[in-house]
Fold this sequence. Notes:
UDP-n-acetylglucosamine1-carboxyvinyl-transferase, Chain, globular, 2 domains
Amino acid sequence: MTPVRVAAGAGALAGDVTLPGDKSIGHRAVLLGALADGVTTVRRFSGGADVRATLDAVQRLGAGAAWQGDTVRVLGAGLELGAGVDVTLDCANSGTTMRLGMGVVAGIAGRCVLDGDESLRRRPMERVAEPLRAMGARIETSDGRPPVHVHGGALAAVTWSLPVASAQVKSAILLAGLRARGTTWVREPLPSRDHTERMLAHMGVPLASGGDGIGISGGQRLRGAEIPLPGDPSSAAFLVVAALAVPGSTIRMRDVGLNPTRIGAFEILRRMGARITIERRRVEAGEPCGDVVVHAGALRGTTIRPEEVPAAIDELPILAVAGALATGETRITGAAELRVKESDRLAALEQLRGLGVSVAVLPDGLVIQGKAGQRLRGARVEARGDHRIAMAFAVAGLAADGGVVIADPDCVTVSFPGFFELLGRLGATVEEA
């Protein structure tokens, strides 16, 4: 895709939109559907590159799948999924596919290689491999990174304490625990997103809880289910800040996921002064959702503390842009995890300096001096293959003289196909550069 320039349009942003289905829940719906007995119907499937990688992986492991429009039907193979396979799974750019996939294949009596693109091959996998080895799987990495070779087999339950909160590592252990002897327990220092736990319960597998841990008893069978995916709250956060960046704007986003472990960004933005309201609250397939309405308004800087990071980890790039548009200082700490995402997001966000923003990069975060009341400087930025960096700087372009040129915009299809087209429909200027 050719470079894209994003800038303010002739007036405010306005619209009533439906976002792609939640990527995190979509991954889990496909994986658990493949492990279930019967058919699992996943509605509002986004079709982004990441979730397509997971869908392809479960088919290669022996599950059936039919995809029509935004609906995917997965014919599960039960806990026998993948028995006897010798297969390579291409996880593309999706760390979720690889990390959760490792948990799925750890209990398979067979051999699986999980590999991905150049970006994914730089990301750490030992923190998943280590607990799975403790359960009995044979796992080899390349200096701690992909490709990952898994020789699965009979697993035994463990009690595992995570040094750093991680929904992906937690989920991998729970998925392996489905096929382990005994009850597997996972403890984490801070709550991370709980989509896996909610979906397991929705599909008939109860979890135990106690203290700071959750447990799953091996051998339980999952039942196929209806899973309507809510709109992705991570995607919603980018449109929230877009509305905040352009005076007079109002955007309504329908059926957005409101899981408490995922909406930390909304709470942080409210603290910064954002006018965000929720309408039509309800629960579907164990997940809370509702309509998110945001009105333009002034922002003030804030401190994002380490304990807030797990519930806002994917939104920190756009929160950094919000800090650039605010009055005063915004400080983010406890976010070293951003170093090992699709890119080193802390390093990528240094490009805010090219927009005239004062940014100090910490080992685990950022300090940003806001420029409220001033236009940002137009610039050209590199997304570095990272969809959230591309979208964050596109939103920054709405407040920049001449806009911002995204040199490599096609990476947004990983999570938000049609993102640039949607910005244009809402009233932004989006054009080839």
